[in-house]
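Build the 3D complex.
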Amino acid sequence: MEIVTKSTRNVLQPRLLSLRVNGVPRILEVSPWVSLLDGLRDHLDLTGTKKGCDHGQCGACTVICDGKRILSCLTLAVMKNGSEITTIEGISNGDELHPLQKAFIEHDAFQCGYCTPGQICSAIGMIDEKKAQTRAEVKDSMSGNLCRCGANSNIIDAIMEVKERRNHA
Amino acid sequence: MLDLPQIGQPVSRLEGRAKVTGTAKYAGEYNADGLLYGYVVNSTITRGKIVHIDTNAVKEIEGVIEVFTHENRPSLAWFDMQYSDMDAPPGSPFRPLQNAEIKYNGQPIALIVAETFELARYAASILKVSYQGESFETDLYNHQNEARDPKKGVATLLKPLPPKPKGDFEKAFSDSAAQVSAEFVHGTEHHNPIELFATTTIYEGEGKVTIYDKTQGTINCQLYVGNIFGLHFKNVRVISPYVGGAFGSGLRPQYQLFLSVMAALQLKRSIRVTLDRQQMYTFGHRPPTIQKTRFGADSDGKVNAINHTAIGETSRHEDYTEVVVNWANIIYPAKNTILEYQLLPMDVSSPLDMRAPGGSTASHAIESTMDELAHKMKIDPMQFRLINYADIDVSENRPFSSKELRQCYIQGAEKFGWAERNPEPRSMRRGHKLVGYGMATGFWEAMSIPARAEAVLTREGKLRVSSAVTDIGTGTLTVMTQIAADELGLPLDDVQFCYGDSKMPFAPIQGGSFTLATVGSAIKVAGKALRKKILKKAKEMKNSPLKNASDGDVIFERGGISLKSNPDVLISFREIIVANEDKEIKTTNMSVPNVFKLKNYTRAAHSAAFVEVEIDEELGTIQVKRAVTAVAAGKIINPKTARSQILGGMIWGISKALYEETISDHRYGRYMNQNLGEYHIPSHADVHELDVIFVEEKDEIINELGSKGVGEIGLVAMAPAISNAIFHATGKRINKLPIHFDELL
Ligand code: FES
Ligand code: FES
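Done.
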């Protein structure tokens, strides 16, 4: 049976990482097998980022890393040394909510709220990608973010409202 | 109070800010100093015995604290009763790690506790277990003839068994002008809330724990833990402020709760146990069901014979039942019926209520059969429903407390444009796509049960109301705050609703669409009692202008009490509190539904769903292009959150009709698609135009709010409306759900 031996233990030695998380420099001391998602949730106590599958199948763990939306469950924390990460906790401007956050509340774009951080981070990344234009394209490009409560149409309504306002600005 | 300004307003969810900023904390998100992590190991065989678990190798790993198995599980409560919970069906509840026996594939057999999550997961992955397998059976379809009648128990109260046969079905059926018979096959489904099941147990010292649990019933879990571990109820506090979806999966305490508390008490440490997605398929599911229908109608289109039978799967240790065959004759008043429901125990975990249990299964069979009958008789499907409209419930021979289903049909059809439908199947198309219109009726019982609530006029002159109830995303916090606000005529900002904590007054499990009526009624009773107390204090004040006022003479408004006859007279709540020596005024009350009155009525929410599907003629791909659901559910407390509930239900209906299914490999007795990649639910791209109508419905009987829950009613009619639309588009009647494109080729 293969168990953690002396040599594997070496591999598992915690590493020091420096990240900027929501604009704040953070030092993270984690083993290489810690995902970015668990690093955020368990080590930095940033539990706003959610874990729905740990397998890249639900989108709940979406964060913005160096300007791109990524699945933090499919990313090892050590891969992101030096990166700039924005999580749901860092989206608003102080007390002033991000337009997407406001639109989500206004459109009742969540029920249990568990998929919500991922939906919002993903939508921010999606809008910045500037690829999806029509409602159908937005739906396609948001389809990696599942919502089991069935808030789908409200979620897309909220995103479209913000996106269109931005197009007109 | 004549003026009820908060009820009926489309208030945005009060916890919205917490949910969009990530500050809403769910059960597995409470980090504590020295928190340990538990990872569960599950059986890889379906039936048999554990011969040996080699825990030594795993325990040697630095950082692994303990491995719990049936061999070192502490001795605990002995009787089935003590493992029972508010939602336990007749039988003997599953006990985690009880002994070496394996009852189903995926049964939890060990808990690894380690200093980090990764270590616990790794250790779980290498734990060596040897088994002695025995033969098993998980294939419902091939063993139908072994089904038997369900056992009765306490749960039968809420889930009545089928009514007795009526009239002479066989004769009426064979004399019918038109007859339809069909078989409907539904597979297993899993709730799959996006939040994983998790319990964080904070060890507070000898015999005392605070538990953050993913559940639909804080007190249900508190009693369960207290009973099993022999703890004082007051030393067990279960908190669930946020629940990341549940859909029924949290109605019973799940095994991670048991394992987490057991480990915490044994190790005297705080510990979190989170299940992984695959493990979300190892407790409770919507059972596979086989239904058969035979409906007959006379020449003027009246259904006069209904035979509906169902066989549902259950486990070998509990008789989980659903109400499947009771509905048809409540909706359609046939005089001759045979309704039968049987169970078939298999080597699986006990099934568990899943959104609209029974009703969503039944409606597919009933409404597809009705559609086929309408087609055979060349009557428009909606017209056919109107011909068979039930003004009273003939199955129980009693009136409905209210029923605006007719308006659901009319308004729904109008909004949808049902009149455009060409009755001929395969007659409507858009380019190379076949277009189909389908409709169906929805029905869900409106229940309520006793609950308690506390209402407090705080020292600030504001209102605080509390109940142990959870908010699983249904909007409970918001609607309860609205209901409470109207009790004292306060704006929402001056009202606080505290919930999701077993320390608070008793609330039953949250499910079956009965929370609104149950907890809402308790709030109304407590509100009334509080008004009495406040008025009494106000009258006792020195020179009180209300001295001679009785209940009927005053209005609670503008943050105080005023006189109806002279609105200039206003004593503020704050003044009353000052007169009360600056002490808050409080009351705790219980609401009990008036069973003697209610039993004379059938109480239900109704709906009508209208659906347009588009089907690619060559590829068979199916899309629900648009759908309208018209709902009659009494007074709608919050049209915004209620609409979302209906939309959610409709999307569940789309999912049931076209996507979701847990697939078993009966050779192994194992589910094969235990992940969100292969267990399909609608993604954003699958959801198109959806519309909701709330039909005006007054109900003065059902409860003081005149309100019925809306958690399930959005779901029930959707799947049959979709399969009927697929029939209309293609001329193919497919009675197995979900319907896949290959069946249309
Ligand atoms: S948790 Fe990362 S995709 Fe589901
Ligand atoms: S709001 Fe519950 S999963 Fe999306």
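The two ends of chain B are 62 Å apart (CA to CA).
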